Amino acid sequence: MPRGYFEDNGEEYLVGLVDPIFIRSNIGEKGSGNINAKFPDKKMKLLELAGRIQDSDNPVLVLVRLKKPINVN
């Protein structure tokens, strides 16, 4: 779940935090090698991150740029 939303220079973003244990259990330990990725180089970076972090590390900041505007009213 996103923790925040902001706009910068006409672009919209969602911000969230993900616990390392969630990343390790859903990406690293399950070996997401069989998932088809639109951007394979980014997938490899995510797998590297999952292998590098420890369960006791700080949460990971996730910043997502939205392609289409959302209605926050």
Describe this structure in words.
With 73 residues, the protein is of the alpha+beta class. It has one domain. It is 30% helix and 26% strand. The chain has a three-stranded antiparallel β-sheet with strand order 1-2-3.
Helices and strands, with pairings:
Blueprint: E1 4-8, E2 11-18, H1 20-28, H2 40-52, E3 60-65
Helix pairs in contact: 1-2
Summarize the structure.
The chain contains 2 helices and 3 strands, in the order ββααβ. It is α+β, with helices and mostly antiparallel strands and 73 residues long.
Output the keywords.
three-stranded antiparallel beta sheet, 73 residues, globular, alpha+beta
User: Which sheet architecture does the biggest sheet show?
Assistant: 3 strands, antiparallel
Q: Using DSSP, what is the number of strands?
A: 3
Sequence of strands across the biggest β-sheet:
1-2-3
Distance between the termini: 18 Å
H/E topology pattern: EEHHE
Please bin the fraction of helical residues: 25-40%
What count of helical segments does DSSP give? 2
Supply the helix-strand structural class. Answer: alpha+beta
Q: How many structural domains in the coordinates? A: 1
The shape is globular
Mean pLDDT: 85
Rg over CA atoms, rounded to whole Å, is 14 Å
Percent of residues in beta strands?
Answer: 25-35%
